From TrEMBL:
Keyword DNA damage: no
Entry protein name: Molybdenum ABC transporter ATP-binding protein
Source organism per UniProt: Neiella litorisoli
Domain Mop: 292-357
PANTHER family associated with the record: ABC TRANSPORTER I FAMILY MEMBER 10, MOLYBDENUM IMPORT ATP-BINDING PROTEIN MODC 2
NCBIfam families: modC_ABC
GO annotation, cellular component aspect: membrane
Pfam families assigned to the protein according to its UniProt record, in alphabetical order: ABC_tran, TOBE
Coiled coil start-end: none
Key words of the record: ATP-binding, Cell inner membrane, Cell membrane, Membrane, Molybdenum, Nucleotide-binding, Translocase, Transport
Listed GO MF terms: ABC-type transporter activity; ATP binding; ATP hydrolysis activity; molybdate ion transmembrane transporter activity
Spans through the membrane: none
Occurrences of domain ABC transporter (ranges): 1-234
SMART domains: AAA (SM00382)
């Protein structure tokens, strides 16, 4: 099963013309600058907006096929929608707000239990509270739970964290990750925050001025130098692994493939899966194995690609660390020339710093 969309619309000064194919599980991020058409796509998926000549299918169910006169209205699409600001009923407590979501669906069609969702989003202590007595992050968790209790086939999230400050955002992210691990509902997550997307998404769709510029598994899309400038905080690669041990000097080790990455001490237990982001500007290259360096993370690598960087005089070098893992290094053209870095060259990659997501 997958999710297939073809949306078209012509508005004054804006044309949307996209074909999107998303996997049936996991979080797919729709990422792009303001005004690129993300919300329009999400609204069209929910049926809130009927775009001409458009098509939308989830698994075997066609919700829109204008060529054949099919358009399933929003209330008949099993879709959960979470907006930027949680719109809870102010006169109902949290439990009653959740019940509202639950009651929208007939008992035989319910795929999730209330107790599971309450536990998943950590809502037990909040059930008797009124929405006015919740923090922004708590309100958003209730809104997500309410959407999930309608047993949606698809969960649409439109910048769900953008109204929260950094602290609240950090508080809610682990819940979104759990949701992702424990539920099989596909999520389409709209955002223009690169950090959120790299942390949560499995699949990434880059949209720019109403057109899809790239789509695919996040690790692959991020590596494509052509799209580096669309990702607004710089070219980067993602490393995913498991905490293998905790080390002396307030450090932890993350195993990925046959490599181990030294990180600042992590609170997570051994075995915990973690995702890290390595900015290309934090990776340098040596021709011989460096021994007298302060940098701890040094890996043998093979150059697979050398491309122009974002600015003149800059190159973006793709390094293979085995078959599964690649790193991007941002180097000066001068260094690339001086060290004769070209595809096929065996080098050592030095990773200066790693952002644990
Ligand atoms: N109902 C509407 N009528 C006419 N134009 C619209 C309508 N809704 C959105 N637009 C325009 O369509 C374009 C795409 O808007 P959309 O909200 O989909 O972008 P976005 O990527 O979600 O932006 P943001 O991140 O700011 O929410 C914009 O130029 C916007 O002004």
């Amino acid at each position: 099963m997958s999710v297939t969309a073809a949306f078209h619309v012509q508005r004054q000064g804006f044309t949307l013309d996209v074909k999107i194919e998303l996997p049936a599980t996991g979080i797919s991020a729709l990422y792009g600058a303001s005004g690129s058409g993300k919300t329009t796509c999400l609204r069209a998926m929910a049926g809130l907006e009927r775009l001409p000549n458009s098509f939308f299918q989830i698994g075997q169910d066609t919700w829109q096929d204008e060529a054949n006169g099919i358009f399933v209205p929003p209330h008949q699409r099993q879709v959960g929608y979470v907006f930027q600001e949680a719109s809870l009923f102010p006169h109902l407590d949290v439990a009653a707000n959740l019940q509202f979501g639950m009651k929208r669906i007939a008992p035989v069609q319910r795929q999730v239990s209330e107790s599971h969702i309450v536990e998943l989003l950590g809502l037990s202590p909040l059930l008797k509270r009124s929405p006015s007595a919740l923090s922004g992050g708590e309100r958003q968790r209730v809104a997500i739970a309410r959407a999930l209790l309608t047993s949606p086939r698809l969960l649409l999230m439109d910048e769900p964290l953008s109204a929260l400050d950094k602290g609240l955002k950090q508080e809610i992210l682990p819940y979104l990750e759990r949701l992702h691990r424990e539920l099989a509902i596909p999520v389409v997550y709209v955002s223009h925050a690169a950090d959120e997307v790299t942390r949560l998404a499995d699949h990434l769709v880059l949209i720019d001025h109403g057109e899809i510029k790239a789509a695919g598994p996040i690790k692959q899309v991020l590596l494509d130098h052509q799209h580096a400038e669309l990702f607004n905080d710089g070219a980067s690669s993602v490393i995913e692994g498991r905490i293998s041990r905790h080390l002396e000097h307030f450090a932890s080790e993350l195993k990925f493939g046959r490599f181990a990455l030294r990180l600042s001490q992590q609170d997570h237990p051994v075995g915990q899966q973690l995702r890290c982001r390595v900015f290309a500007s934090d990776v340098s290259v040596c021709l011989t194995q460096p021994h007298d360096t302060s940098i701890s993370n040094i890996f043998p690598a093979k150059v697979s690609h050398v491309a122009e960087g974002r600015r003149p005089g800059e190159k973006l070098v793709t390094l293979d660390l085995g078959e599964e893992q690649q790193l991007l290094a941002q180097l000066s053209s001068h260094s690339v020339e001086r060290l004769q870095i070209h595809p096929g060259h065996h080098v050592w990659a030095q990773v200066k710093s790693v952002a644990v997501l």
